[in-house]
Design brief:
Length: about 250
């Protein structure tokens, strides 16, 4: 056997390894919305080795529960999730909705416990990033640390926007602002900005915005009668986006 023949198995192993590396984060449809953006190929390989992909969270199934120790950060792969916190009297407050490419669990970094409970709104899947391993990997990848800080900063900015909406806007302005924000988020994910599914219930929307369910229902009806939106089941169409922007203030 010649030298070339003896190296053939090694070459095949290297080729298989390189092929496997391309089947992970870099080939994901959410590549530009998630942590890998801006990472070098070798960094992607290191990150992919710690990621666990978890499928089939049924509607209502919990991803994590409030008060539990922080074990992983999660990125939504498909479907949608909501997070809630509970008051002492048992009432729940919807604190956020999460769609493909978005992180869940960043608010657990401060105390190393999840302050909220995350549930699937429909059949969903996630990528889990075990936090202890993520910390170890990020020490050698400065770009990864920057991406984490960027995601955390955006989450804080979204929270401030919500507080402004809740404190300064009318009920109609709150709902229209929420619908426009959804439009932007779906557009960023390659979906239609003007026709999309609402995975959450109207009760969840009302709870999130601090409104009564009856108020939200009335506003939806009023917007439909004004031909600003069209609603069929969970499907929503924004018929006059510019007019809605004006209504949002």
């Amino acid at each position: 056997m010649g030298q070339a023949d003896s190296l053939l198995p090694l070459i095949k192993d290297v080729a298989k390894a390189e092929q496997a590396q391309t089947l992970a984060c870099q080939s994901c449809a959410l590549y530009r919305l998630c942590l890998p953006l801006g990472l070098h190929r070798e960094d992607l390989v290191a990150l992919d080795q710690i990621i666990r992909r978890r499928d089939s969270f049924r509607r209502g199934q919990r991803l994590f529960e409030s008060g539990c120790d922080l074990t992983s950060l999660y990125v939504v792969r498909s479907g949608a999730f909501k997070t809630t916190v509970s008051a002492k009297d048992g009432r729940e407050q919807v604190t956020g909705f999460y769609f493909p490419g978005e992180f869940i669990g960043l608010d657990a970094l401060h105390l190393n416990t999840y302050p909220s409970t995350a549930r699937a709104l429909e059949l969903s899947s996630v990528c889990a990033l075990p936090f202890d391993k993520l910390q170890m990997v990020s020490k050698s990848i400065p770009a990864l640390q920057h991406q984490l800080l960027t995601r955390l900063s955006r989450a804080l900015s979204d929270d401030k926007d919500l507080l402004l909406s809740l404190g300064q806007k009318s009920a109609e302005e709150k709902l229209v602002t929420f619908l426009i924000a959804l439009s932007t988020r779906f557009s960023e994910r390659g979906f239609s900005a003007y026709n999309f599914q609402l995975p959450m219930s109207r009760g969840d929307i009302a709870n999130h915005l601090g409104l009564a369910l009856e108020t939200v229902s009335r506003i939806f009806t009023r917007l439909q009668q004004a031909d600003l939106i069209a609603v069929q089941g969970k499907s929503l169409t924004l018929l006059q986006p510019e007019a809605l922007q004006t209504k949002a203030g």
